[in-house]
TrEMBL record:
Its main location: other. It is found in: Cell envelope. The keyword Signal applies. Keywords: Leucine-rich repeat, Repeat, Signal. This is Leucine-rich repeat-containing N-terminal plant-type domain-containing protein.
Amino acid sequence: MKLLLCLSIFFISSLPASYSCNSKDKNTLLQIKKHFNNTEFLSSWDPQTDCCTSWTGIECTNSRVTLFSMANYRTLYGQIPDQIGDLLELRTLEMSHMKLTGNIPRTITKLKHLVFIFLRWNKLSGPIPDYISELKSVTFLDISFNKFTGPIPGWLTQMPKLQTFQADNNSLTGPVPNSFGSFVGSVPNLFLKNNKLSGKIPESLSKMDFQAVVLKGNGFTGDGSMFFGGNKRTVQVDLSRNLFEFDLSKIKFGKSLAMLDLSHNRIFGKLPRELTQLRLERFNISYNRLCGKIPRGGQLQTFKSYEFAENRCLCGSPLKKAC
């Protein structure tokens, strides 16, 4: 029995190192902990334990750290540490709902395998760094609810795997870039609500088939019809609370459209009967300059009257005003 026990201990001790945390990654994480003044939020990051199996917010693949998640540490101040760029196999970076300041460090460009970036709900500021375009594997970039300024980066079109860009609730200014009329990869979802964006939407975007585009709460003007089309696979369009001005009567809608909010604009014309053929889940056209009878059928009469209210001369159900 003793021999068997000794052999078992020998076998366990001789297992390859790939079953435990890579020493370089571990040292990097300990430096990050020190950067945040050894905060109690990271008390599980004990140098005597395995970072892959017992450290909060850390996941590994083949002993290398592939997920780094610091979230909901709302009293934790500081900047994103430069050392984050030394976790060379990182796939997911999350530092959200904190009080991070400064900008995204250039060292992030060393993370060539990075796929997901979640930096929402912080106090990050300055222009969105152009060196993020070097991260060719990123599919999801979320920097919403920060204090970023400057223009929407035109270089987003050069990120071949980008599927979603979320920059809601910042202080971005200027127009949508002309370059958004051509992406090297798939056309990403765009979430840009509640910024300080303005100007007209480039006509070149009419060639793009966005699955979701949310421009709510900006100062865009002119035509917004290029986001629609009978052959498009768009699911969500939110152009609310802007200064868009176009004829809704002439719009053709793709059959996949499920969420449409055009409220608080200067849109005119009549409601197309095509709307009755859509499986709408959300719909709001209030506070525009629309006229005519609301078509009966589909989902239209299931929405509340206030979602049609304050137009020039709309009538019919669900409004109380008869035609």
